[in-house]
Amino acid sequence: MVFDTLTVWPWQLDKETSRKMRGKTVSGKAILLLCLASFLAGSLFTSRQTWKNHPSQTKQPQNIPIMPNHVNWPLDDAVTRDCDHKRKLVEGKSGDIMEEVAKTHQAIQSLDKTISTLEMELAVARTSQSGGVQLPLIERASNHSLQKAFVVIGINTAFSSRKRRDSVRETWMPRGAKLKTLEKEKGIVIRFVIGHSATPGGVLDRAIDAEEAEHKDFLRLKHVEGYHELSTKTRLYFSTAVTIWDADFYVKVDDDVHVNLGVMASTLARHRSKPRVYIGCMKSGPVLSHKGLKYHEPEYWKFGDEGNKYFRHATGQIYAISKDLAAYISINLPILHRYANEDVSLGSWLIGLEVEHVDDRSMCCGTPPDCVWKAQAGNLCVASFDWACSGICKSVARMKDVHKSCGEGDGAIWNVNL
Predict the structure, then answer these.
(1) Residues 335-351 pLDDT 10s
(2) For a disulfide at 260, which of 75, 336, 360, 408, Cβ 3.0-4.6 Å?
(3) Structural contact between residues 233 and 342, judged by C-beta atoms closer than 8 angstroms
(4) Please, which residues have CB within 8 angstroms of residue 334's CB and are 6 or more apart in sequence?
């Protein structure tokens, strides 16, 4: 028997084995699952490494609530409250909005007045320390302190006007104890304003001294009396008054004018929050260039061509200025120019300042029947006089009649709430 020998070489075995292995095909699903498993294993490994390196990021603070789309900041609360307030204002009544606006406006006015007052007080203090201005002081103690007041009313008078003063005392001006009570309870100070005669200590001065001892209602100025010196007298009155009384207003009135004190106080109180105010019957009369006329203006050429008018200013029978303006006059006393007419002079001192001019026609009512008609209509006058006489014509004889017809009543001033 013959046996055939079969030789199998190693590379032949490998090829055969390879053919057998290629015969078993691996499915696509298995490959996909294998890839997915590998990806997940890698991700898991990476995440664990990150958690180990940053453990604080895996925990949430226990005291901070997590709310979708909201961060609980104090600023958000403030903004929300402000928006709610504005929404309520818009959705509310219009009266509420106007009330808010009025309160804001009042606060601004009060702040403006306070700042202005402080500025004036600082200027007065600096002037006093530097000695730059010699203030016209009346005889008083060196340690005198300012007396608080609501208004100081200076009644311009002359040596020859004793009967006029008596007519005022018997009508609209309180006397004696009532005058002092008016100062204490209402802060209303009333004084007749007068200077000295050309011969100090003469008969005229002694007569005023005796009258002062009886009534105690004078303010004496270091000033020589004279009709053509009214501008100087007015300037000295304001500068002297501010060294004695710390008042909200200072009033100048002539001794032949009737005044309702209650109406005046109420009128002034309406302007109390304003820092610089000038109140009176504003006018603009002609500049009289011809000599011999009562109101002749020697410096007429300063006001332009012939026939021109003065700038607006309060008529001289009665007017009021606020504290800051009186202090301004006191500080600048030596350099304030004086024109022939005192009302023009005052207007010129204030025309270039930030001053509110208030044209109040109740301060220049006529005598009966004019003031009577206005009183019957419910519009009591602050002051009454006759334009033709620049005061009440024959005031000594007629003051009582005017007071009876146009007066507010003797108790009116005591009922005014200031």
Answers:
(1) 999 999 999 999 999 99
(2) 408
(3) yes
(4) 133, 134
Stretch 180-185: mean pLDDT, rounded?
96
Residue 126's contacts (CB-CB under 8 Å, 6 or more residues apart) are none
Average pLDDT score over residue span 196-213: 95
Task: List the one residue out of 414, 234, 242, 266 whose CA is nearest residue 341.
Answer: 234
Amino acid residing at 17: T
Cα–Cα distance measured from residue 96 to residue 98, given in angstroms and rounded to the nearest whole number: 5
pLDDT at 226: 83
Locate 158 and state its tokens: 């002359």
Token pair of 350 as six digits: 């204030």
Q: Are 221 and 236 in contact (CB under 8 A)?
A: yes
- Given a contact cutoff of 8 angstroms between Cβ atoms, the answer to whether 283 and 114 are in contact is no
Written as six digits, the tokens of 284 are 């603009």
Q: Which residues lie below 8 Å from residue 97, measured CB to CB, with a gap of 6+?
A: 89
